[in-house]
Amino acid sequence: MSQALAREPAPRAKREIFGTPIFGPESAQKGYALNKMCFSFNSAAARAEFIRDEAAYCARYGLTAAQTEAILKRDLLKLLDQGGNAYYLAKFAGILGLNMQDIGALQTGMSVEQFKAKLLAARDS
Amino acid sequence: MATIIGGLAASHVPAIGGAMAKGLQQDPYWAPFFDGFNAPCRWLEAAKPDAAVVIYNDHGLNFFLDKMPTFAVGAAPEYRNDDEGWGIPVSAPFPGDAKLSWHIIETLVGDEFDPVTCQEMLVDHAFSLPMQLFFRDRAHSIPTVPVVVNTVQHPLPSLRRCFKLGQAIGRAIESYPEDMKVVVIGTGGLSHQLEGERAGFINTAFDRRCMDAMTGDIDGILGIDPHELVELAGSQGVEVMNWVAMRGALLGDVHELHRNYHLPISNTASGIMLLENRPKLARAA
Ligand SMILES: [Fe+2]
């Protein structure tokens, strides 16, 4: 079919998208240890071990000082800046007992109620 | 020969699993979502497909960044779910159709797609929840072929590439020499973004455009590059790639039989669609 043969557009310089980290080659390398630690949280035993001594667990996975500090402080925006990937960080959020509205509120500086209201308001958009 | 009788699409956020475990299907928050499955479930009960090909993305249960395939196809007799770390119950295993898997793999490679093949593969909520939502009591007895698309790490495959993958899967199923009925399911989306200062982003206009494109101007969305897709759909809204691949597999005349659009469920705009795939008249002649 002819449309299937249509040329892909030439790559353009990527624009910034407000408040939206793109998890690509740079973050994938920078955040590898951090994401690997979060991937380990699939295991209940790993989650328990992390809770027993968070800093020691971070050290075992080779997190940098900045990544470890961001974990200890639950600083999600910093974790993203340090190469964290949303899909793996969600497992860290699970350990903290936070749901996605709690996470959204933390990252946007809103209260949880404000964040839920923002989601609802999208209905009218 | 096998025939593809239809395509289905649904969102797949983990919170759905939590709601199911707590029996909240008729809770006012959840009912508008769960009720959206009644019509597709009735259709599936009547149509009685023999197998389901499920196109989804893994959220860090089976695949990690150490080895991250752009496309992967399961080729196992059975697929297990496991602890994903966010507290939703582990589901019972799902039967595979390894023979159909290998036929799809052979056809895809012959068609210049080169997926990773997996004789062992854990399936996460993006597979298990839509299977349970669409098939209910029969979710764990319908043979399946899981197909995984990378939505986790850029570079992501383009929508056009996903559509072509779907077309190749469609050709594979239609050349399968068993007399059986197959449905293709695409899961994920619609617009949502979990991370960053734009967390909570939802784009209803774009979601409607994608749903309309399933029976309308599909080519109009295939030119959207992955970066632009993040901008329009949100970082995880890119999962609509799985819908586009599902749509690609429907090679006949495609008719929309049902849609449900509701938001929010968790941080996500939820879309459910049932598409019927009727034989093209020209090809039937
Ligand atoms: Fe997802």
From TrEMBL, chain A:
Domain Extradiol ring-cleavage dioxygenase LigAB LigA subunit as annotated: residue spans: 34-119
Top-rank taxon: Bacteria
Listed InterPro entries: LigA_sf, Xdiol_dOase_LigA
Gene3D superfamilies registered for this protein in UniProt: Dioxygenase LigAB, LigA subunit (1.10.700.10)
Record's protein name: Protocatechuate 4,5-dioxygenase subunit alpha
Organism the protein comes from: Rhodopseudomonas palustris
UniProtKB/TrEMBL annotation, chain B:
Membrane-crossing segments per the record: none
Sequence ranges assigned to domain Extradiol ring-cleavage dioxygenase class III enzyme subunit B in this UniProt record: 9-268
Pfam family, one: LigB
UniProt xrefs under Gene3D superfamilies: LigB-like
Gene Ontology molecular-function annotations: ferrous iron binding; oxidoreductase activity, acting on single donors with incorporation of molecular oxygen, incorporation of two atoms of oxygen
Family annotation (InterPro entries): Xdiol_dOase_suB
Record-linked NCBIfam families: PRK13364.1 (NF009901), PRK13365.1 (NF009902)
Record's protein name: Protocatechuate 3,4-dioxygenase
Organism lineage string: Bacteria, Pseudomonadati, Pseudomonadota, Alphaproteobacteria, Hyphomicrobiales
